[in-house]
Amino acid sequence: ASYKPLLKQVVEEICSADRPDSVDIEHMSSGLTDLLKTGFSMFMKVNRPHPGDHPLLIIFMVGGVTVSEVKMVKDLVATRKPSTQVIVLSSALLTPQGAIEQLFAADHPQLDHDI
């Protein structure tokens, strides 16, 4: 078994050379042309824009990322798509101790069943 972080899997899928249509990753329309392509793709066979086509990639990871994951993304993008700028945002910067504390924390948020 080997460990492959989710962040690395996402970036590899975006930067892949064969560029299959991803079910989980979608290009957000930024202009009229992209919006028309996305809208017509429901009725006709139109190639939707691929997230890897844009020179700026913004990834937001909920729950946190580690420094080693960010370094892995930087190295991966530098080798596969050097002209792409990647911004990695997250809700937390995780340390090994912080990740374990989050995993085993006794004060997990509880659902409000009165709603």
From TrEMBL:
Xref: Pfam families: Sec1 (PF00995)
Q: Name one GO biological process term.
A: vesicle-mediated transport
Report whether Protein transport shows up as a keyword of the record: yes
Record keywords: Protein transport, Transport
Task: Note the superkingdom of the native organism.
Answer: Eukaryota
Q: Which InterPro entries match?
A: Sec1-like, Sec1-like_dom2, Sec1-like_sf
Establish whether keyword Manganese is in the entry: no
Q: Which PANTHER family match?
A: VESICLE PROTEIN SORTING-ASSOCIATED
Q: Which family does the similarity line name?
A: Belongs to the STXBP/unc-18/SEC1 family.
Q: What is the protein's name according to its record?
A: SCFD2 protein
The uppermost taxa in this organism's lineage are:
Eukaryota, Metazoa, Chordata, Craniata, Vertebrata
